[in-house]
Amino acid sequence: MTNTSESDEDTPRVPVVCPDCETTSRVPLSTVADAIDRHNEQLHDGDDVAEVDPDVADRIADLVAAELGLLEDGA
């Protein structure tokens, strides 16, 4: 997977994994969707193979659900 670089070292980077290529890369948050789409188009005929690391995606989903109050009992 191509690793996108940005000059700003403070830019959050997201781990992207591709099990078929057996690669992991960190790409800037602002370009993660484009990087995944480009990788899948170029290497996997557009199939959704590469993705944000599932553990990270799950953690983000948990944080968002908590922020929205979706995990509170008795809602």
Characterization of the model:
The protein has 75 residues and is an alpha+beta fold. The protein has one domain (13-67). Helices cover 36% and strands 19% of the residues. The chain has a three-stranded antiparallel sheet. The chain is elongated and about 45 Å long.
Give keywords.
DUF8149 domain-containing protein, elongated, 2 helices, alpha+beta, 75 residues
**In percent terms, what proportion of residues is strand?**
15-25%
* Strand order, sheet with most strands: 2-1-3
Structural class: alpha+beta
The end-to-end distance, rounded to whole angstroms, is 43 Å
Low-pLDDT ranges:
none
Which helices and strands occur, and which strands form pairs?
Blueprint: E1 13-18, E2 23-28, H1 32-44, E3 51-52, H2 54-67
Antiparallel strand pairs: 1-2, 1-3
Brief characterization of the structure:
The protein is α+β, with helices and mostly antiparallel strands and 75 residues long. The protein has helices at residues 32-44, 54-67; strands spanning 13-18, 23-28, 51-52.
